[in-house]
Design goal:
single chain, mainly alpha, 0% strand
Length: 125
């Protein structure tokens, strides 16, 4: 378990990477080679790249994010990023986003209408 100072630093680092990833995936599609490279560089902060993100099972991805000390909000943001990234025709990560949202809903012990809506929306696609 991380002490409070390290935990705060880790939270800030994760938040910064997620914020950067968010700005990279919310761009008009298709992604250029440079944009994909920028996304790859940000994913490396989490020990991922696009191919491993695709190859990882739902459980492997969630376990990695938990080991990286993602909190519930950060997990939700990562799920949102997966949804946006899935709009690129070569990538379908919506099933992983659904697994992340379901994990949050089950494990957080707090019911979230927002996450429940996201889960329902993904199941209806």
């Amino acid at each position: 378990m991380l002490n409070k100072g390290l935990r705060d630093e880790e939270k800030i680092r994760i938040d910064n990477v997620l914020k950067t990833l968010r700005t990279l995936v919310y761009v008009p599609y298709p992604l250029s080679h440079l944009q994909k490279s920028d996304i790859e560089n940000q994913l490396k902060e989490f020990g991922l790249d696009i191919q491993t993100l695709i190859d990882y099972s739902h459980e492997e991805l969630i376990n990695l994010l938990i080991r990286l000390h993602f909190d519930w909000d950060q997990l939700e943001q990562f799920g949102d990023i997966l949804i946006e990234f899935s709009k690129e025709e070569n990538y379908n990560l919506t099933d992983k986003a659904l697994a992340v949202y379901q994990y949050i809903q089950q494990e957080s012990k707090v019911f979230s209408f927002g996450i429940n809506t996201k889960i329902a929306s993904l199941k209806n696609k």
